Amino acid sequence: MSSRVCFGPLPGRSLITARWIVGHRNGRHCLLPKAELVFEGPRIVFVGHGFPGPVERRVDFGNAIVGPGFIDLDALADLDTTILAFDNQPEHRTGRVWPRTYLEAGPYEMYDREELAFQKCYAFARLLQGGITTAAPIASLFYRAWAETVEEFEDAAIAAAELGIRVYLGPAFSSGTAVVEDDGRVTMHFNEARGLEGLRDAALFAARLEGAHGGLIRGMLAPNRIETCTPGLLDGLRGVAEELGCPVRLHACQSAFEYATVLTAHGMGPIEWLDRHGLLMPRLLIPHLTHVAPSARIERSFDDLARLVDGGVSLVHCPLVAARYGDAINHLARYLKLGLNVAMGTDTAPPDMIRNMQLALLIGRVLAQDAQAVRAEDLYDAATLGGARALMRDDLGRLESGALADFTVFDLSRPELGQVIDPIQTMMIAGSSHSFTHVAVNGEFRMIGRKVKGFDEVAGAARAQHQFDRLVSRYPDRTWRHPPVEDIFSSSYPVDPIPVPHDESPGG
Fold first, then answer.
1. What Rg, from alpha-carbon coordinates, does the chain have?
2. Helix, strand or coil for residue 81?
3. Are 290 and 259 spatial neighbours (Cβ–Cβ below 8 Å)?
4. Half-sphere exposure of residue 234: CA atoms within 13 angstroms, side-chain side
5. Is 295 helix (H, G, I), strand (E, B) or coil?
6. What is the C-alpha separation between 489 and 497, in angstroms, rounded?
7. What is the pLDDT of residue 298?
């Protein structure tokens, strides 16, 4: 009988134990001390105490939490460019919105296919390292010629299958983009034909790859942002979504500019406009929802949230990237009390789900002005059960008999965690993604001792930095008035020049 784990499929039944296992009973998670989890192939066959049957191997992870894999529905699959806006605002002056001159000159791809394939592989490996076993990737379109391509997502499917992460894939498409005019005004430029072409290609891709690689690859429709969608694109989206029955992720209610743009163009806010097009449905995932209504019409926010609840729509909560822009949901406890399904997303670097849960917990309490408004389990539920509900998957996000064996091992012995009280509360107080030691997807270990098979973390980080630096060097092309890079991105403090050494050679 073996007492070790290895990469790849494990023959027979495996029994693992730990100080804590997050089980599932009567529709909710429960904590099982010194319990057992038994899986065979891709499925869990037992969670509890005293498994009576024979097993091929027993592995004790000691002082750890064995829990369900996290579900990230706005998962960073990019060399993140939002970090460039961290202390560099406004966005339309720092390369995050195309200038009219760049649009007229012809936008171009700032990454080639090989670079796009690398960034997906690099991001997927980092997601696994953070305990994320199911992901719906998100990447910026700012440096694309218009939208994402089928070819790059074919490469993404191969990378996901090789690393062993479960992904919902679909190239993002758009029928419009924001543009900075010569006088500094931000307007919208539309090309509905390109949006409809992108929708068609995404639908064909989703249908073709659905269930590929042993079920690890599933289809998704990913229109870009609500303000970039024309009425024709939304009408077409509804029909394709009904035909395919796959998730639809559409960023909405994430900025004051977006809300004002939709309100001006259509005489109603984003939620009402989506409702008019029949898109408030259980398959719809909306990241952010930080601007449900303008402050002048805040009384409508309850009506908008009620529409989302009635439609069965899911919020994908991404608190870290929102907070970097000075935004937050106001407030999470209210959203939960209304019955809105809340899932989680990372959407920025680092793709640390625990950091996002911690921030959501703290901001939720601050804005509610109530230390009991949101609890640790509310965010753990969102990162597991909420994501599973959003995907309409009762075989994900929980450890119980019959569910898929997607689980993580979180090391509780790390000294920086301090003294352990309740294990989930400790995770929410002091944990980070670096505390995950092992990750399994479909009953196969994909990370062991923080090593992801087939991924060289050091070499990957070096290549990512080189690729990122090259991208930054090209920012003047797509920045208003095309200033040099040093004028686009500020420095925290003045940077002294490196002194030039004196030539001390004879006769120098």
1. 24
2. coil
3. no
4. 22
5. helix
6. 17
7. 44
Using CA atoms, how far apart are residues 140 and 146, in angstroms rounded to an integer? 11
**Predicted pLDDT at 300:** 52
Cα–Cα distance between 303 and 309 in angstroms, integer?
A: 10
Which sign, positive or negative, has the C-alpha torsion 158, 163, 169, 171?
negative
CA atoms within 13 Å, Cβ hemisphere of 24: 23
pLDDT confidence of residue 414: 94
- The DSSP secondary structure of 178-245, one letter per residue, reads EEE-TTS-EEEEE-HHHHHHHHHHHHHHHHHHTTBTTTTEEE-BEE-BGGG--HHHHHHHHHHHHHH-
Using CB atoms within 10 Å of the CB of residue 283, give its burial: 0 to 12 exposed, 13 to 18 middle, 19+ buried. Answer: buried
pLDDT of 421: 86
Candidate CATH numbers 3.40.50.620, 3.20.20.140, 3.40.350.10, 3.40.630.190; the one for domain 70-396? 3.20.20.140
Q: With beta carbons less than 8 A apart as the criterion, state whether 440 and 59 touch.
A: no
CB atoms within 10 A of CB 19: 18
Q: Exposed/middle/buried for 260, CB within 10 Å: 0-12, 13-18, 19+? A: middle
Q: Show Cβ contacts of residue 302 under 8 Å, excluding neighbours closer than 6 positions.
A: 338
- Tell me phi and psi for residue 175, to 5 degrees: -110, 10
Token readout for 33 is: 């001390």
User: In which residue are the tokens 């960023």 written?
Assistant: 251
**CA angle, 213 then 216 then 217, to 5°:** 80
Asked if residue 447 lies in contact with residue 434, where contact means CB atoms within 8 angstroms, the answer is: no
pLDDT in tens, 464-475: 999 999 999 999
Phi-psi map region of 150: left, alpha, beta (phi>0 left; psi -120 to 50 alpha): alpha
Report d(CA 287, CA 250) in Å as an integer. 7
Token code pair at residue 14: 């495996």
What is the reported pLDDT for 296? 39
Whole-structure pTM value: 0.96
Residues of the chain predicted below pLDDT 50 = 295-299, 508
Give residue 508's pLDDT.
47
Q: Where along the chain do its domains lie?
A: 1-68+398-455, 70-396
Give kind and range of the element (H or E) at residue 126: helix 113-129
CA distance 347 to 78: 9
pLDDT value at residue 156: 98
CA 102 to the chain's CA centroid:
29
Q: Does domain 1-68+398-455 have CATH number 2.30.40.10?
A: yes
- Measured between its terminal Cα atoms, the distance across the chain in Å is 73
Name the one residue in this structure whose structure tokens are 């998100």: 138
Q: What is the pLDDT of residues 424-450, one digit of tens each?
A: 999 999 999 999 999 999 999 999 999
Closest CA to 229 of 210, 203, 256, 249: 249
Spatial separation of the C-alpha atoms in residues 444 and 6, rounded to whole Å = 8
